[in-house]
Write a structure and sequence with these properties.
single chain; about 160 residues; mainly alpha; Leucine-rich Repeat Variant; 10 helices; globular
């Protein structure tokens, strides 16, 4: 399927062209991230951190909106984005990270019905604590960590 293979190979193509090639690829990326083809969106969500790393200095890439788009999508797409959330947020500016935090916390609070989902989200907390100021860590991330510390599944704890 062309859409899936295009999405799967997108980070490699972007790496080959470099950040200067983003202007030619931006529209394709945005169309792929909004396509009806579920597997294409999922592979883009899983590789968002790689695209963010390549485009770190490029302010024309609105990583914040793409991340939020994937976080409101289906479960597997959301899990793809959450799997490397800390790595993705590393490439955002501190102000953008703070703007993404309410969406991230909403996902953490409301989408943890399955223990594997909670385990994946809990695995990202350490990385997130290093990316946010202490006040945000104490007020937002710490309460979530305490809640997951009481989880009945050992892997989440």
């Amino acid at each position: 399927d062309i859409l899936y293979h295009s999405a799967f190979n997108f980070p490699a193509l972007l790496a080959a062209l470099g950040p200067q090639g983003w202007d030619r690829l931006r529209d394709v990326y945005m169309q792929l991230s909004k396509t009806e083809h579920y597997e294409a969106r999922q592979t883009l969500a899983c590789s968002l951190h790689e695209v963010a790393r390549i485009l770190a200095a490029n302010t024309a890439f609105n990583l914040e909106s793409v991340l939020c788009l994937f976080l409101i999508d289906g479960v597997e797409i959301k899990m793809g984005a959450l799997g490397h959330l800390g790595d993705t947020l590393t490439w955002l500016t501190p102000a953008s990270r703070v703007r993404c935090l309410p969406m991230i916390m909403q996902v953490f609070r409301h989408d943890g019905k399955q223990w594997r989902t909670r385990e994946l989200m809990a695995s990202q907390l350490v990385k997130l604590c290093h990316l946010f100021p202490a006040s945000i860590v104490v007020n937002s991330l710490l309460p979530q960590a305490v809640e997951w510390a009481h989880d009945p599944v050992a892997g989440v704890r």
